[in-house]
Design brief:
Protein name: Helix-turn-helix domain containing protein
Number of strands: 0
Shape: elongated
CATH architecture: Orthogonal Bundle
Structural class: mainly alpha
Helix content: 55-70%
Number of domains: 1
Keywords: DNA-binding, Transcription, Transcription regulation
Distance between the termini: 110 Å
Pfam family, one: TetR_N
């Protein structure tokens, strides 16, 4: 008589259900590199495969594809990581070193924004409302508002040298951010390095400073 023994292999447990906000964040994370690569033509089927979910799951948390694309733009604009890095820069370093590190952080952040915005704008899918979805707005957050928080963190990097500055740290942070934005424009023949940008910003184009007469 054959003895019937129970299997010692533990039963496979199903992963706990993810809340809607967590599901949205996971889908956006999977979608971002695809949006940069394919633009607005990326399919929800491709995004679903990248996220390891069924395509229908996307539409349980997003009303349509435009809402998903807008969420990708909003995620690209989030400055949490950039601000945390700016705030971690040691103020014991010389101002030139502080700003060079800050330039690297900000240029990476702005490049991400530009990549996503460019991919969506080229297909005319950036900033378009969804009139057929009451209460749903697919327009991304304002870029100027998104850049305000890192600008404050940049101002803090100037603060230790306030007594040696020609302008207030807040105004210099604004000017520095504008310089970084213009330097990152596509098609520049020979982009300036972070160090070159900082040197140009702090000391100007002349090797010897002379006041205008």
């Amino acid at each position: 008589m054959t003895e019937n023994t129970a299997s010692t292999t533990p039963a496979r447990r199903r992963a706990p259900a993810m809340d809607p906000e967590g599901r949205r964040a996971m889908i956006v994370t999977a979608a971002l590199p695809l949006v940069i690569e394919y633009g607005a033509s990326v399919t929800t089927a491709k995004i679903a495969r990248a996220a390891g979910i069924g395509e229908g799951t996307i539409f349980r948390v997003f009303p349509d594809k435009d809402a998903l694309l807008a969420a990708c733009m909003a995620e690209a604009l989030r400055s949490d990581d950039a601000v945390a890095h700016l705030e971690s820069i040691s103020l014991d370093q010389p101002l030139t070193a502080r700003l060079t590190e800050a330039a690297e952080v900000m240029r990476g952040y702005m490049a991400r924004i530009g990549a996503v915005a460019g991919a969506l704008a080229s297909a005319g899918r950036l900033g378009r409302p969804a009139p057929d979805q009451p209460g749903t707005d697919t327009r991304p957050p304002d870029r100027e508002a998104a850049l305000a928080t890192p600008r404050a963190a940049l101002a803090a990097l100037f603060e230790p040298d306030r007594d040696s500055l020609r302008l207030a740290p807040e105004r210099l942070a604004d000017a520095f951010q504008l310089l970084l934005m213009s330097a990152g424009r596509p098609g520049a023949p020979e982009p300036l390095t972070d160090r070159e940008l900082v040197t140009l910003f702090l000391y100007g184009a002349l090797t010897k400073h002379e006041e205008a007469r």
